Automatic annotation (TrEMBL):
Belongs to the carbohydrate kinase PfkB family. GO terms for molecular function: kinase activity. Keywords: Kinase, Transferase. Gene3D superfamilies: 3.40.1190.20. SUPFAM superfamilies: Ribokinase-like. InterPro entries: Carb_kinase_PfkB-like, Carboh/pur_kinase_PfkB_CS, PfkB_dom, Ribokinase-like. It comes from Afipia broomeae ATCC 49717. This is Carbohydrate kinase PfkB domain-containing protein. Residues 58-318 form the Carbohydrate kinase PfkB domain. The keyword Kinase applies.
Length: 333
């Protein structure tokens, strides 16, 4: 197998984040399910934006956040996602390239605007997302470069890709190319409501080996197996998946392999400000550890470190060097 050009390549919905602090009453007033990600149309997006208070705006998107983090640890990273050639799309492209991430997906010249997610953050740090996919939904198999996929050690895919039909086909094309070239494929389940929409299809991806590594949190795991019994659901996941990681907020995470389960504690934080991107950054640390050949416990610690950084401020991307944080914590980078 030839040496990889990239350690991790992510494929996802390229979304610009608009974040605002709010309260539970605002969510109730606007019919939002706290902690969820809802897909909205352009009219709803405009209405939500108008009702929101002063906002923080920055590039986002689940897989893109993860890839941003992977690069922040010092790995070679690439990203595939669709923006439009508009002002926000050009900002998005600048931001991800400035983070030393290879991003060559052609921008759309017509059709809907670059996608945006309107994220409401309540005082407890929980985030509620209202996402207008926009140009992201037009990601297609034609945007998948076989040579780039073949040159990536791990291809990382987000469950949100299962919403747009074209993106689903791109997802499957990338997985096949990766496996044909003896590369690994990772999937994050993204959101419990997303799992609810595509449960059978996600289970099929896991059971057939279309994905080699699965990331989930407790609510996504419960949705996947339709049980609140964590141990029972974890047992089913171990039976189905080659390797899986389940994050458990302040309880840390468990890495579920066929032969054993490794529990890793959460990294201590002073205050939870905004949980947006916690799972994305956890995946970044874990994937970085994997491509560096570290054991599951060390991978989990790197993931916990990255997640702890991002939940202590507004926004889903690190504001401190992850590599420096890992070095200060005595973790290998």
């Amino acid at each position: 197998m030839t040496a990889a050009t990239y350690d991790v390549l992510g494929i996802g919905n390229a979304i610009f984040d608009i974040l605002v602090r709010t309260d539970d009453a605002f969510l109730a007033q606007h019919g939002m399910a706290k902690g969820s990600m809802a897909l909205i149309d352009e009219a709803r997006a405009a209405a939500v934006y108008q009702a929101m208070g002063p906002a923080t705006e920055m590039s986002g998107g689940s897989a893109a956040n993860t890839i941003f983090g992977v690069a922040g640890f010092g790995a070679k990273a690439a990203y595939v996602g669709k923006v439009k050639d508009d002002q926000i799309g050009r900002m998005y492209t600048h931001d991800i390239r400035a983070a030393n991430v290879a991003f060559t997906t052609a921008a759309a010249t017509d059709g809907p605007a670059t996608g945006c997610s309107y994220i409401l953050v309540t005082p407890d740090g929980e985030r509620t997302m209202n996402t207008y996919l926009g140009a992201a939904q037009d990601l297609s198999p034609a945007d998948i470069d076989p040579a780039q996929i073949a040159a990536s050690s791990i291809v990382y895919l987000e469950g949100y890709l299962w919403d747009p039909a074209n993106a689903k086909e791109a997802f499957l094309k990338a997985s096949k190319i990766a496996h044909d070239n003896k590369r690994s494929v990772a999937l994050t389940l993204s959101d419990a409501f997303c799992v609810g929409r595509y449960r059978d299809e996600f289970l099929d991806l896991i059971r057939t080996g279309t994905v080699d590594l699965v990331f989930a949190n407790e609510t996504e795991l419960a949705s996947l197996y339709q049980t609140e019994d964590f141990d029972k659901a974890l047992g089913q996941l171990r039976n189905d998946a080659q390797l899986a990681v389940v994050t458990r907020s302040e309880k840390g995470c468990v890495v579920a392999a066929k032969d054993k389960v490794t529990a890793v504690p959460a990294y201590p934080v002073k205050q939870v400000v905004d949980t947006t991107g916690a799972g994305d950054l956890f995946a970044a640390g874990f994937l970085f550890g994997l491509v560096r050949g570290l054991g599951h416990e060390q991978c989990g610690r790197l993931g916990a470190l990255a997640a702890a950084e991002v939940i202590q401020h507004i926004g889903a991307r690190p504001q401190t060097s992850l590599k420096a944080l890992a070095q200060a914590a005595g973790l290998p980078v």
